[in-house]
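User: two proteins, same treatment. go.

Assistant:
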Amino acid sequence: MSSRSMHGRSTGAWLAATMLLLSGCGSGGVTAPRIEDALAPTFANLIQLQRSILGLPDVDASALRASASCHKLGQGKDVSGGGNWTCTIVWFLPGHRGPLRDAYDLSVTMDGCYTATSEGAEGHLGGPTITMQDGTPTTNLLYVFDGCFDPT
């Protein structure tokens, strides 16, 4: 076999391997609906947990009716894939008049994991720490939180 023929085969194998690797680098299943479907229930569960920690009356996560609306930042027409996203969560606290809204900046990876950081540190959710009824500061579970979803 000539070296030219071997070179052609190795180039073809390299090209095939490269194409296979690059096919895993696309936007995959990181889409707004998948992020929204993961973010809203995680947020509601954290509210339920935080109320318990703070000694506030229990509220069922489903009663909060949390929903999220997300979009990818700075990508032009690319509306999927890992990167920076922004999301608004609309939720209802039983006994509170009208819906509540909270905005989050998300850093989302291609494997479906994200870190959500509150945009409204001084809003009704509070900052990085909040004060318990006895005056003790504690971590605000709703200020920054992580989650994952299945992007496949």
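Protein 2:
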Amino acid sequence: SMKKILPLITLIIIIAIIIIIFLSMSNAKQMVVLKEGNTALTPLEVILGRYQDSDCGMVIDRMDYVSQVTSSDGKTWFFHDHGGMANWLKDKAFKDDAKIWVMTIDTKQYINARTAWYSRTDNTPMKYGFGAYEVKQEGFITFDEMGLKVLRNETLRNPYIQKELLGK
């Protein structure tokens, strides 16, 4: 009778759902958070949609504001907002020795983050506002100044700074 078959059908459906969930989970792409072995300390290729930001954990889905931090032992971390990179780096023991690469807006290539210039009003993924540029323009700041502004919360994430810089 139907009364005896129904619990069995329900059980089969539940088991099928569980199997489907497990299969889809194992199929999920492995996200890259950290790459080891970059002893050349050079910028690595970032595959959009596969790499995760080490500061906020979000998926990196555009190259405009990508930065990479490599420690002397060849470990490389990836970021989609330079403000997030500065925030992550602030309390790392190796911060002064790290090799840091930033993607530039003006020349669209990786350059040394410490020699780049930073705008304060770019529409960046995490809303810090710092775009990296190879060529200095009016109002741009240095790498050290950017780090200080992140520490002091003087970024576009702060409504007072946003009003001061953007008038809104």
